[in-house]
Automatic annotation (TrEMBL):
UniProt similarity note: Belongs to the NAD(P)-dependent epimerase/dehydratase family. Dihydroflavonol-4-reductase subfamily.
Name under which the protein is recorded: 3-beta hydroxysteroid dehydrogenase/isomerase domain-containing protein
Endpoints of the signal sequence: none
MF terms (GO), sorted A to Z: 3-beta-hydroxysteroid dehydrogenase [NAD(P)+]/C4-decarboxylase activity
BP-aspect Gene Ontology terms: ergosterol biosynthetic process
Domain of life: Eukaryota
Parts forming coiled coils: none
Residue intervals passing through the bilayer: 12-28, 83-101
Keywords carried by this UniProt record: Membrane, Oxidoreductase, Transmembrane, Transmembrane helix
Amino acid sequence: MLDHLGERPGVGAAAAVTLVILLIAYLARLNQLLLRTPDEIKKLASTRWKRELLRETYRRLEQHPIETQDYVSRIPPKLERRYIVTGGSGLVGGYIILQLLERGQPPESIRIVDFRAPNRADMLQGPATRIDFVQTDVSSADATDGAFNKEWHPSVSHLPLTVFHTAAVIVPSDRSKLVSGFCEAVNVRGTQNVLDAARRAGADVLVSTTSASISIRPVELWVPPWKLHSKTSPRDYWQVLDEKDFFEPLRSHGEFYANYPASKAAAERIVCAANSKGLRTGCIRPANGVYGNPTDNTVGGALAKAVLPTWTSHIVQSFAHGANVAIAHLDFEAILAAPASASAPQAGRPFVITDPNPPTRYQDLYFLVQTLAITRFRTVALQPIMMVLLSYPIEWYTLALARFPFLRKALPELTGEVKHLQPGIFSICTHLVASNEVASRPVSSGGLGYTGVMSTLEGMTQEVVEWNRDHEGAVLGERKVYQTSVSLADEIARAAAKIESVAR
């Protein structure tokens, strides 16, 4: 009897060791699955970018960059209208401004309504500097009304009004409704404020920028152990981004990967539901992710770092250059400008937009930056399962501070990129292939007649050309600091928090 009892600790230890081994084996196998590129995606991905192709493209674009004047024939003709562009200082909004000017709209007929003044180099020269700017927080109904109702130059005050609503905040990984207030305030209530202000200002066309991320479903990161033997990827580890979800009931909050796409989906429904003869509306969904200026998160985010830790080199995604997204907005406006278009098949619905080429691997983007940038750059490979495991404590910590505000007196809030390493981020770090097949159909067939003006290879290379020009003669290792859409969202959130604190 005593001998039997003495054996139990050994049995328990052996069982514990076995469980640990099984857990390690499970995590290792899951890590392998997360590092896979499914055969379906490999068939769709573009040909790998070779060093000579990159250098040849760089030389061509360094000598003859693709500027708005180079594709003016592709921009829809000038309309005798006024324009309000919310978020006009940003990536998509800025390209809309430049294309409007290129096709002949006088600066007096355009107004930028944004949280910040333009700071892009291509908007700090020429006619863009004469455009009226009204600093506005669209989450405030009064501020939005004030910006829309500001008096226009007499030469254009009689013209009909188009609103391009591109203003939004991007918070990439927060998924709990407990911390959804910021996205709700700007992306949902802000959109409603813009829509209401547009009506009161007499606008008859409104095209809003939403996001192809709306259609992304949360990835099932934890594959059941009995499925690990197969080559099956985690559920939804690769997805096609299209508009089919729009024609189904709006999904519940938990069926979106984060608060951001949930808020953009709600905003999209608001805009599309408002379509009428008096105000024709529609939405453009840019593919994940949008780039085209060193201020972006995709290319600019890589250029900003000498060392980039990443677990996404093998990931294949569709990208959308800001110029391509902007021209799709103008394509849409050209259709909606006709009063009878309220009943057209294009009105009151979204269209996905992407670059005119197959999806691209992040590894190609990193190779492009490493090959062409004059600043140093290299990647450090991380194991995705380790980042997944780390993301949960970060989320728990963040939610604890939100749920129990008194903890903020003793514990610091997370800042910088680490705050975004939460489980939701992994649903946009997966294989995402966008389809703009519908938008590319002729107008007579219910499409926008959309074709992109810049390929992903050209767009990303040109951004490096601009980066190198900005960093000529810089001290080794010194990098110019650009404000990205994610860092801007952080700034707006801090400003809102201060106002709330004072109000208390």
